[in-house]
Amino acid sequence: MEIKIILYGISIFTIITGSWILYYAIKKWNPDFKPKKLTAKLLREILGSKGSQIFSGIMGGILILFGITLTYLMLTKDMRSKSNKYAKSEWILITKFDGKNRSVLNSKIEIENKKISRMGKEHLKGYQQISFKDMGIDKIPDFVWDMTNLETLDLTNNEISKIPNEISKLTKLRRLILTGNNIENKHLKELEELTGAEITKPNNTYK
C-alpha cells in the first residue's frame, strides 16, 4: 500500500475522531457520568467535570486541526508534483552524419516509419544521435535497432520500464540516457553489461 494512501487515511480518521470528540464535549456531555476507564476516571478527578469537558473539546479540536493540516500538506505536494511534470512532446531530435556533414533535424515516430516504408532502412545508418525526450513513450520504436552507427540514445522523461536485448545491435552506442523512467536496478546492471555504454540512470530506480 502506498504511503500516500496511508497518510490520507490517517488524516480522515483524525478529522472524524476529533469531530466526534468535539461534538460529544459540546452537545452530549453528561456531568453526572462516571467513567469506567482508569484514565478517564483520573481525568475527571483531577480536572473535574467541567475541566474534563473543556479538555475533551480542546483535544477534539487538535485532532481536527491535525487532520486538516495533514490533508492540506498532502494535497499541495500532489499539486506541486503535477505542476512539475514534464510537458509531453511529439518530436524526435536526430543528429545525422552523411560522411561529410553533420546536421540536426526534427522528426516524429510516424514520419520515420513512413520514410522506412518508402526508402527502406539504409538511411538509419546515418543517424548518430536520437532523442525521445519528454515523449511519454513506454516502448522504444523498433527502427532504433537498425541505427547501427548510433552513439547516443536519449530517453529522458518517458514511461519505459524495460529495454529489450535488441539494444545489443547498437555496437557503437556510447551513451544511454534514462533519466525520468521507472527501471529496476537489476535491469540497469544488465544494460551496462550488454552495451558497455555510459548510462545516465533514472532518479527513481527500484530493486
From TrEMBL:
Keywords: Membrane, Transmembrane, Transmembrane helix
Transmembrane segments: 5-26, 54-75
Gene3D superfamilies attached to this UniProt entry: Ribonuclease Inhibitor
Top-level taxon: Bacteria
InterPro entries reported in the protein's UniProt record: Leu-rich_rpt, LRR_dom_sf
Xref: Pfam families: LRR_8
SUPFAM superfamilies: L domain-like (SSF52058)
Protein name: Leucine-rich repeat-containing protein
